[in-house]
Amino acid sequence: MFSHLKSQRVNLQLLQEAAHNELVQHLERIEGSKVVVLDKALVLPLGLVTEVKVFTERNIKLIVLSGELDVPKDVTNIIYIVRPQVSLMDQVGNHVMKLGQQGRQFHIFFVPRRSCLCEKQLENKGYLSSFGSVEELSWNFLPLDADVVSMELPHAYRDVTIDGDTTSLYQAAMGLVQLQRLYGRIPKIYGKGVQAQRVWDHAKQLAINEKSLYNGDKGAIDQLILLDRGIDLLTPLATQLTYEGLIDELFGIQQNKLMMPAHHFPASNIGIAGDSFAKLLGFPNTKIISLHSGEEGYSELRNKHFNEVIRLLERKVKELNIEMNKYSREHSVRQLHIFVDKLKILEEEKRAMSQHTEIATLIQTQVNEYTFAEDVAAEQEFMVCADIDKTSVYIEDQIARKNELRNVLRLICLQCAAASGLKEKVLNSYKRDLAQVYGLEVLLTVSNLEKAGLLYPQTESRSYAVLRKTLRLTVEDSVEVEPKDISYVHSFYAPLTTRLVELSLKPLGWQSLKSQITNLPGPTFEDFQAQLIGIGGRHVGTTPSEGSLLHVPRVVLVCFVGGCTFAEIAALRFLAAQEDNHVEFVVATTNIINKHTFLDSVMGS
Amino acid sequence: MPIMHDTGEWFKVRPDYYRKVELTTPDWPIDLDLEYMQVVVAPYGGPLAAIRDRTKVGPVKGSAKPIIRILDTTGQELGKILWNHGNLVAMGWSDTEELLCVQENAVVFVYDMFGREKESYSIGQEASVTKIVEAKVFQSTAGTGVAVMTTSGRIFLKQSSKAPMRKLPDIPQSSANCTCWEIITEERNSYCLLGREREIIKLFPGETVGTITANLFEKPTDGERIIKLSVSYNHQHLALYTNKGLLWLGSVDMRQKYCEFDTGRKDMPLQIEWIMNSDNSDSDAVVISYPSFLLIVNRHADRSDFPYDPIMFLVAEMDGVRVITQNSHEMIQRLPKCVENIFAVNSQEPASYLFEAQKKFEEKSYKSDEYLSMCRSQIDLAVNECIAAAAHEFCTETQKSLLRTAYFGKGFIPSHNPDEYIRILRILRVLNALRHPKIAMPLTYKQFSYLKPEVVLSRLVFRKHYAIAIQVAKHLKLPESSILEHWAYHKVMHDPNDNEVARKITEKFKNPSIEGISFCNIAEKAHQSGRDDLAIKLLELEPRAFLQVPLLLKLGKYDRAVASATQSGDTELVTTVLLEIKKKMMLSNFHMIINGYPLALNMYKKIMAQSSRTALYDIYNAMDDQKAMAEYHFLNAIESNALESNLSLIANSYTQGRRAVEAELCTDTGRLLKLQKALTTKHNSVHGHIPFYGMSVHDTMLQLLRMGEQKEAEKIKSDFKVPDRRYWWLRIRTLAENHKWDDLEKFSKSKKSPIGYEPFVEVCMEQENAREARKYIARCREDRKVYWYIRAKLFEEAADCAYEQRDRHGLDEIMRKEAVTSDPSLLRKIADYVNGLEARR
C-alpha cells in the first residue's frame, strides 16, 4: 500500500500492514452500515497506516469528531477512533445522547490502548451500555518513512517530565516489543538516561512471556540505542538548518504532510494529494504536499543544509532543461515513443522541482529576515559557550522589545542547556525581566520549564562545556555544502545524541563512551538479549556465523525517548551514507519535534 | 495363516468375525458381591457405580443405609457415597464422568467420580409431587439428560441440568401394561419409545399424543409381549425382546426390520446391548445376557453363544460391548477388517504376506523374499493395514510385531511418508499406558480418537494422575500448563503448609519450556479456599502485573497493588488501582499509600487535575508542596479574575516554598495593581479611560510614555527597579513612534547609552526614517556599521564604510543587493572599491 516504506532489512511495510489489518478486522467484525468518527489528532496519523480508499470501498463515511455530528439516517453503527483522552468523552457522550435513540449501535476504538478513565467517564453518564464494542488498535509505533517510526505523541516529553505521567514510556516499551515481534529479537541494547532506562526495563518485563522472541535467531535489527531527550535539550531548542528541518520549523510538517497556502503554487498542481486524510480536516485553499522518501527528488534534498539545497535545485533545473530538450531533433517514430515515455517521468520531475523551488523560495525569504540571522547568531554564541554565565544582552534586548515570548524563553533555555544550568543570579534576573514585561503569569510558564528540566540552577558539573570538547560537538572548520561531518545540520554544531550514536559505532565505541558521558544525567546502561535455549528450543537450521555477516551492514534502531528533530534524523542518515560506518539506521521516536513544537508543548498548561 | 496370533478368541457370526478381547482382570474388593448389586458403568473405560439391589435378596453386610460404591475398571475403589436421601430410583453416568442419582421425588443428585456431591436439580414440580417409578439417564446433544416416569404414567425429561424441563405427550389409552421404555435422541430432540403388549408407542415432545406402531412381528403367538427394548449406542437401531424369547431387530424408526429371531429361550434376559461397527452398520449385532449365558445375534439372524459367569453386566461402547463379571472383564467387538486380513487363516491379503515376510526375515529365512514378492505390488496397502491393525490391538506383543512389519515394509516404499506411522506409534504408547491397571482406562484406538487427546488428558488430570498426564502431554506435544495448573490447584486445596506449597509450585513452574502458566489462577483458587496468605505468596511469583493487581485488590492488599502496578510502569493499571482503592479507603490513608509511589502520586494528580481541583489541593496540602499550592492558588485566581485579592496568599505560599523571587514578584504585582488603579483615576479626566489595571510593569510604563507622562514612568522605573537598558528601549521606541526626532537625538546625547546606538537605528528604521537612522549608524560600533547601512538600504554609505574597513565580504554582499545591481554607477563604484582592495593586497 505504501511503497515508500519498503526496505530490505527492516521493512516497515510490515508494520504498516499489521496496523492496517488490525483496523480492517475490527471494522469488519461490526455488521451493518457504519460511519467512522475520527479524533482530530488521529486524522493524519491514520494516513500513515491506511488509505481513505479502505473506508470508501466499504461505504464507510469518515467524519472528524466535533461537537455536532451529522450522521446519515440509515447508518446503524457509529464507530469512534480516538486517542484515550477523557476530554473527548464528553463529546462522544453528547452524540450518544442525541443519536442513540434511533436504534444505533456505538463502537469505540482506542489508539493505542483502551483507557479505564475514558470508559469510566462514559459509564458514569450511563453511555457505556450503548457501546457494542470497546476495542483497542495497538498502534504504538506508526511508520513515517522507510527508516522512521514515530508514536506521534506530541506531548510525550511534557507528560513525562512535567506531569510525571509515564504512559508514553510504557507505550514505547510495548512498541519495542511489537517491533521485535515483527522483526525479531534485538540482541544488543545500549542506552542513556532515566526515561530511556525505564522504557527498556518495561520492554524487558513485557517480553518475559514472549518465549518465541527468545527462541529464534536474532532478528533483522542488530542493536538498539535508547536515548533520553533529557540528556540533550540543546538540540531541540536550536534552529535546524537542513531543508526538512527548516520546512518543519517554518511551516510545520504533520505526519509527512505539508500544508501550504495554495496561492503559492500554480493551480495546475493542486489536487495531487487530494484523496488523503488531510482533506478531512477541511482547510480551504490549502495545498497538501506529501513529503517522504517516496516523493520525487525529496529524498535527495531533505537532509541537506539549506545552502546546499539551493545549489542542488539550480543544478537540477538545469539538468532537467537539457534532458527535456535533448531529443527534440530525433525523428524516428520509435525514438519519439521512447522520448514521450521519458517525458512523462521528466514532467513528474519537473513538477516536483517546481514545488521544491517554490518551497525553497518561501524559506529563503524567511531565512533572509534579519531576525532569523540574529537568532541563529545568538544560538551559536551559546553553543560555543561565549559569555555563557552572564545574562545575555541579546536576550535582554529581545525582552525589552517584548518580542515573542516563546522565542525568548527558547533562547534562555538554550543558554541554560549550553551553560549546564544558569547561575542563580542570572536565572532570577531573567525571571524578573520576564514578569515585568510579559506579566506575572509568565511565572507559571517558567515553572513548567523548570519542571521540564529546561531551566535549572547551575551546579558544579559543566557537562556541555566538557562534552563540547571531548565529543567535538562544535566543529571549527565545518562545511555546509558536501559536508564531512554531521555538524552541518546546525552549520557547525553536531547534535549530542547523534554524536553519541556515531561514536558508539566504533569498535568498543560504547565502552569507551561510557566513561565520557557520566556527567550527563541518568544512568548509562547496556543489555544483551541472548537466545534462550530451553527444552524444545533446539536450533532449527544453522545460524550464519558472525564472520559471514560482516559484509552486510548492521542495523541499529535508535530510539529517542521524548522526541527527535529532523536535523537529528538527517545526521543519522548522513552517518549511514558514509560507507566506512557500514550501518543502517531505523529511527524510533515519540514524536518529531522542532524548536517551536517542543516549546509549545512544554509551555502549555 | 500366521500362527502366533491368538485367533482363538475369534468367533464367527456369519458372515463376520467377532472377537473377545480380555482386558485387565478386575480385582473387586472382597466385600463386593456383584450378584447382589445394581451396577452402572460409564463408557470409555470409565468408572462404575454399584449399589445393593433391593430387588435381590442377599446377605446384608455392614450398614443398613444404602452405600453407592464407585470403582474403576480394575476394582480399585475411587469413592463412596453414603446415600442418606430418599428412595433411589436410578443411576447413570454423564458424558463427563459424573454420577447422576435420581431420587423418588424426581431430584437428581450429581456426584463426581470420587463421590463428592457437585450439584442437584429437580425434574419439575409435577414429577416431584406425584413421585416417580422409573428414571433413565440418556445422552443428548445438550449433554446428559434425565427422563422420569411418574406413578401416574407421565414422562418428563431434561436434556441436561441446564436445559428446560419437557413433558412428553400422554400415553394413549392407558399407561398400564407398559413394560419397558427407552429415551432416544434424534438431532436436537429426545423422545421416548414405550413397549406395550405387541406394539411400540412413540412419545415425541411437542406432539399432543403418542403414535402407536403395531404389527411389528410376522407371526406372533398368543400372549406375546415385548418385555425389553434396547437402543444402539448411536441411537440408530432398535432391538425388541418378547416374553416368548422372540427378538426383533430393526431401525429405530421401525420402518426397516433387519430380522426376527427366535432365541428359543424362556428365561428373562438380563441386558440387551448393540455391538456397533462404524465401518459397516450391516454387521451390527446385539449381545443378550442371560444368567450364565451370553447370546450374540447379528442382523442376518445368525447367532453365537457362550456360557458365562452367572452374573454379568454389559456396557455399550461406541465400538463394542464390554462384559464385566465377578472375575473377568472383556470386550466384544467386530474384528477390524485389517486385523482379519492379516491374521485370518488362509488370508491372501498383501498385509498378511508382508507380516509373514517380516517374520521370515527375522528368522533369516530366504522365504522372506518369496513372501515379499507376493505383496510387492500392493506394499503401500500392506504397510498401512499393518499400522492400522496395530492401532486396534490390545496385546503389546502383537502391536510390536505389526509395527515391526510396517517398519520393514516401508523400507520398500520410496519416499514413504512416515507421519501416520509415527502418529500411531505415539498414540499406542499412550493407549498402553492408559490400559495399565494403575490407570485403568481401557480405551480402544477409536474411542481415543473420538474423545480427543485433550479430553483424555483432562480425565487423567481429574483422576490426579498428574505424572502420567504430563508424560502423555509431552508425548503428544500438547501444552502441559493446564495439567500443572490443575496439579497446583490440588496442592492448594489439600496441602496445609503455605510455604511448602509455594515452594513446590515454583519449583515445578520454573521450567522455561512451560508457557502460559498463570500463578494468578492458582492464587485465585487459594483465595477462594480461604487461604489468603498463600494467595499472596503465589501472587508474588506472578511476573505479569496486570494479572496480579486485580487479585491483590480483591484480597484487600492495596499497598501491594499500588506497588506492583507502579513497578510495572503500566499507567493504565495504576489508574485502575487508584480509582478502585480510593473508593475503599479513608482519604488520609489513601494519601499516605500513594505518597510512597511517585508514579501513583503523579497519575492521581493528573486525574484530579481533570476532574476535581479541590482533591488536587488536598493532595498538595497533604504532601506539603508549597510551590504547587502557590501555583494552584495562582491558576485559580487567574481563572476567577481575582488575582489581586489572592496575591498575598500566593506570595505567602511561594515564600514557604522557598521561592523568594516569585514571592517578591507577587508582592510587586500587588503594589503595581494599586498604583494602576490610582493611575486610571488620575488620568481619566485628560486621557479618558485607560485600562492600566492588569498591565505588566513594562506595558504600564509604555502606556505612560506614550501619553507623555515621563515623570510617572520614571517613578515606576525606580519603584520597580526597572533596569536602565529596558527603560531606554522604551523611551527611544516611544519617541520614535511619536516622531519626536529632536527629542530622540537629545535623549541620545543625555548620557552614554546603556544599550548602545544600534537600537536607535532600529527604532528609526521601524518608522522608515533612514535620514534619522544615518545619524545613529555613525555612532555605532565600527564593525557593525556596514551591517546597519545595508539594513537601512544606504548602500553608498555602506560601500564607503566597507571600503574604509577593507571589508571585502561586505562589499560582495552589497553588490548582490537588488537595489545596487540596478544602479550602474554605484555598481561601478563598488567594483572600483573591490579592485582597490584587491590591488592593495
UniProtKB/TrEMBL annotation, chain A:
<comment type="similarity">
    <text>Belongs to the STXBP/unc-18/SEC1 family.</text>
</comment>
<protein>
    <submittedName>
        <fullName>Vacuolar protein sorting-associated protein 33A</fullName>
    </submittedName>
</protein>
<dbReference type="GO" id="GO:0016192">
    <property type="term" value="P:vesicle-mediated transport"/>
</dbReference>
<dbReference type="InterPro" id="IPR036045">
    <property type="entry name" value="Sec1-like_sf"/>
</dbReference>
<feature type="coiled-coil region">
    <location>
        <begin position="303"/>
        <end position="330"/>
    </location>
</feature>
<dbReference type="InterPro" id="IPR043154">
    <property type="entry name" value="Sec-1-like_dom1"/>
</dbReference>
<dbReference type="Pfam" id="PF00995">
    <property type="entry name" value="Sec1"/>
</dbReference>
<dbReference type="InterPro" id="IPR001619">
    <property type="entry name" value="Sec1-like"/>
</dbReference>
<dbReference type="InterPro" id="IPR027482">
    <property type="entry name" value="Sec1-like_dom2"/>
</dbReference>
<dbReference type="InterPro" id="IPR043155">
    <property type="entry name" value="VPS33_dom3b"/>
</dbReference>
<keyword id="KW-0175">Coiled coil</keyword>
Automatic annotation (TrEMBL), chain B:
<feature type="domain" description="Vps16 C-terminal">
    <location>
        <begin position="517"/>
        <end position="832"/>
    </location>
</feature>
<dbReference type="InterPro" id="IPR016534">
    <property type="entry name" value="VPS16"/>
</dbReference>
<dbReference type="GO" id="GO:0006886">
    <property type="term" value="P:intracellular protein transport"/>
</dbReference>
<protein>
    <recommendedName>
        <fullName>Vacuolar protein sorting-associated protein 16 homolog</fullName>
    </recommendedName>
</protein>
<dbReference type="InterPro" id="IPR038132">
    <property type="entry name" value="Vps16_C_sf"/>
</dbReference>
<keyword id="KW-0653">Protein transport</keyword>
<dbReference type="GO" id="GO:0030897">
    <property type="term" value="C:HOPS complex"/>
</dbReference>
<dbReference type="GO" id="GO:0003779">
    <property type="term" value="F:actin binding"/>
</dbReference>
<feature type="domain" description="Vps16 N-terminal">
    <location>
        <begin position="7"/>
        <end position="423"/>
    </location>
</feature>
<keyword id="KW-0458">Lysosome</keyword>
<keyword id="KW-0472">Membrane</keyword>
<keyword id="KW-0813">Transport</keyword>
<dbReference type="GO" id="GO:0042144">
    <property type="term" value="P:vacuole fusion, non-autophagic"/>
</dbReference>
<dbReference type="GO" id="GO:0033263">
    <property type="term" value="C:CORVET complex"/>
</dbReference>
<dbReference type="GO" id="GO:0016197">
    <property type="term" value="P:endosomal transport"/>
</dbReference>
<keyword id="KW-0967">Endosome</keyword>
<dbReference type="InterPro" id="IPR006926">
    <property type="entry name" value="Vps16_N"/>
</dbReference>
<dbReference type="GO" id="GO:0031902">
    <property type="term" value="C:late endosome membrane"/>
</dbReference>
<dbReference type="Pfam" id="PF04841">
    <property type="entry name" value="Vps16_N"/>
</dbReference>
<dbReference type="GO" id="GO:0005765">
    <property type="term" value="C:lysosomal membrane"/>
</dbReference>
<dbReference type="InterPro" id="IPR006925">
    <property type="entry name" value="Vps16_C"/>
</dbReference>
<comment type="similarity">
    <text>Belongs to the VPS16 family.</text>
</comment>
